[in-house]
Amino acid sequence: MHLIQKKAALGIKGLTILCVVLGLFTNAEPAQDAEGELTFLKLKLESLKDRIRHLCNQYSDLAHNCSAPAINCTECPDGWVHVGDHCFVLSKDTDGWLNSTLKCKDIGGHLAILTTKEEHDALEKEARRIGTFNPFYWLGLTDIENEGNWKWVDNSTLQVSFWNTLKSEPDNNESAGKAGEDCAVVDTQNQNWYDVPCSFQYRRICQMDAIPLK
Ligand SMILES: [Ca+2]
Ligand SMILES: [Ca+2]
């Protein structure tokens, strides 16, 4: 009886060790599988990118020989709006202008530098798609250094503007304080710009360069 109990105990011990060893293997396998799958997916992604590049280049070459509009073989991150060589994204949260510049930097971009009607059209469409009570968004445009001398966040001077001149913008209105209005927003419903106090809270448009595929 005593011997049988000993054997049974040994049997349980052996079974436990076997289970632990099996457990080690079964735990190790998914990790190896995941690593293998990741490598496979990376290869597949690269292969698909090559394919897109190839197709895009073919399309561009064809477009040169017919009346089809030219396209740029570039891409934007998911959720960003692609216009020409640039990508734009509209924030959901609001903040002051300075913090907004930092938040755009955090995601690898800068506050939007809008120079064309095409960009305004695309952003109006995107803002309407998102839908919000307040259609105003920060732009990367300020005259904080030198009153009346409007500069973009890349330090370039303002060439083409979309100020709401019917309302005498920019007017550096001091009704909200002596600091006046040194930061610009775009009204995405009518594509007009306004200068407003930099401390006001608005959503923002961040921008980055589209990634060339060629
Ligand atoms: Ca001003
Ligand atoms: Ca104003």
From TrEMBL:
UniProt superkingdom: Eukaryota
Supply the CDD domains for this chain.
CLECT_DC-SIGN_like
Keywords from UniProt, A to Z, are: Coiled coil, Lectin
The protein's matches in SUPFAM superfamilies, at most eight in alphabetical order, are given as: C-type lectin-like
Q: Which residues form a coiled coil?
A: 31-65
Q: Which Pfam families match?
A: Lectin_C
**SMART domains linked:** CLECT (SM00034)
- For whether the record's keyword set contains Coiled coil, the answer is yes
According to UniProt, the name of this protein is C-type lectin domain-containing protein
